[in-house]
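Trying the structure run again after the queue cleared.
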Amino acid sequence: MAASIGAASCRALFCRSWGKRLSAAWGLLGGARGLAAQGETHLGFQTVPEAEKEQRVYQVFESVAKKYDIMNDSMSFGIHRLWKDILLHQMNPYPGTQLLDVAGGTGDIAFRFINYVRSQREYQLRQKLKSHQNLSWQEISKSYQEEALKPLGGSQVVICDINKEMLKVGKQKAQHLGYTEGLSWVVGNAEELPFDDDKFDVYTIAFGIRNVTHIDQALQEAYRVLQPGGRFLCLEFSQVNNPLISRLYDLYSFQVIPVLGEIIAGDWKSYQYLVESIRQFPAQEEFKTMIEDAGFLKVEYRNLTAGIVAVHSGFKL
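Done. Tokens:
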């Protein structure tokens, strides 16, 4: 009888002990499932919760906003200007084009767009006057005056950026450079754009999409806001396709750019992140597939400067 009671007590202790262990194990598994449900992503070479990345990236660009343009010139030796010019020539907008420029806070793409459309408009006017050689000078003067009232032919560019400091810098530049027409500035998230469906002719994003937490969601939003026949254009750092240039580029990126960030902007960490974020961005073919998965057709890309950057293009058809 005593042996039976002892055996029963041992079994009870054994069950309680393992019950506690199993409960703890399930608790750990539940915690892991919770982390998985929340999701993790990269912030440069760090791994962070998805919910944290947006705020951390916001802080990076809030920190560098005032020195952003100077640093772009310093880091790229001014070549970024050529890359952006190529993007505009590939877009080839016409008077009346409605452009959405996402992550375009400092206005580089928007100002180029306005300049390009204005020159196209002036060309149209010259061609129109050539076709009416017999007009009197009064009629020619009247025609010029009418066109002066609508120099962009109805074109409008909306600059959308999640970062208020970047938009603030862009607005100051616009005022300083004399851009007063055809511009509007909107605070908005690339993953949840504050615009109606089928609204724009062209969507651009230059050096911005790699900072988005959910790239696939941003691409779906780009598709949503474009009109049928609209065009998606992305200018972004990509994968260098020459091994020698790749090694030199890595050396420059990791050893020089953060130092420039510290000297010019007083911010080593932000530029270390920017360098790391480039290495985490999908290569050309992988990004092309992502754009196609969002619904775009006729997707192609063009490498610039040995693939240091690439222009990806697609259409909503």
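The beta strands are 40-43, 46-49, 98-102, 156-161, 183-187, 200-206, 226-237, 297-304, 309-315. Worth checking whether this holds up in the mutant runs.
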